[in-house]
Each structure stands twice: as C-alpha cells, then as structure tokens.
C-alpha cells in the first residue's frame, strides 16, 4: 500500500464512524463507467489498460462491500449495445471480462451471470456459466456480473420466460392475462430471488442509468460520482453509503 495523506485517512475514518447510525443497503448496483477516459487522461498507451485497471478495482469494491455488510452487488461490465463495437475493441474487452470472472471464481465470490448469455461468444458464455455453477450455494456476498446486459432486454426475456412457463402448464393467454401481476414478471428477471437494489452508483460524472436494472430500480436511490471508475476510492464508496443513509426514502412518491 502506498503512502496515504493523514488528513485523508482522518476524513475517511470520520465518514466511516458516521455510518454506524445509518442503514446499509442490502443490494448495491454499480455502473463501472470511465475506464476509457481514465486511460486517456492518464496518458496510457491503450484503453485496454484502463479496462484492466477497472477490473482490478472491482475486487477492492467487493472487499469494501463485504466489510460493511452489503449482501448483493451488481456490476455492469458490458451492455448489449457494447456488443456492436468493432472486433478489435470488443475482443480484448471480452478477454478482460473472462479473466475477471475467472478470478472472482478463484477468490470464492458467489458469481451470478446477469444478461443475455446467448448473445455472447461461446467462450465468454462458458466462463460465466462455469463460474456460476462452481460458486452456486456458497455463503457470503453475491456478485451479479452483468455482461451482455440491457434493461429492456431483461424485461423482454422475463416476459418470454413467463409465457413459455405458463404455456408448458397449459395456461391460455386469456387465463394469464386475467391474473398477471408484477410479481409474475419479477419471478422471471435475471435477479429473481434477490432484493431489489436500494442504491445505484454510477462513476465518471454521467447522470443517467442507461437502462441499468430498469425494472428493479423503481425505488432505488441514485448516487452519481465524478471520479472515473479506476480511480474510485474507498472514501468515494463511503460517501455513497453516507448519502444513501442520510436520505428520507419515500417509496412511491
């Protein structure tokens, strides 16, 4: 660990002490934004170095979440829109994602793929599925790895899954329409069985969700951070928790 400014350390400790009086979110979603811009502003030769640095930062974040008692973390690594990038840009990114998921598995985190795996290259889909199978049922933090993810796609997939499940039971469209409610769709989302995210964090200064956890975020609190993802610090995470804890959450209004 490098040298830390004593004033910075004291400020971090002050925020941490205040968190004792606040509620900690069970589920935190993070849009890991700014890897490319961080690489460019840092004078690095390749944006891939920014993605690598961003991947390393994930493991710091998971440690921080584990420390404070967060139960579920959803990490948006690659959107469905990103799958349309040129091969020379997409292939190195997919390799970094595969390496990251392999490391998550090796370090014992509970990996849960979140996204349209059928849209991914076979190797990436296989790494995600094998990590999920190897870590299924473990205790501790659940890490939703959102790869090939889009909020609208997730809802469409949930409805499709619901229709197929009901058709297999012999339910007619008319019967389903009469009793369909929100819970029926929720039971077929990628994150089924998990609490909805109470806190969503986006780095890099962009103030939009871009469809991230579109269904699940109906009552989420949002925290937008100016710092690029690879430069995200523990104090930035603690600030997000402080902001969340200090809010008077008014559901439905």
TrEMBL record:
Binds 2 magnesium ions per subunit. Mg(2+) binds at residues 33, 221. SUPFAM superfamilies: Undecaprenyl diphosphate synthase. Keywords: Magnesium, Metal-binding, Transferase. Gene3D superfamilies: Decaprenyl diphosphate synthase-like. It comes from the Bacteria. Pfam families: Prenyltransf (PF01255). The active site is at 33, 82 (proton acceptor). Homodimer. Catalyzes the condensation of isopentenyl diphosphate (IPP) with allylic pyrophosphates generating different type of terpenoids. This is Isoprenyl transferase.
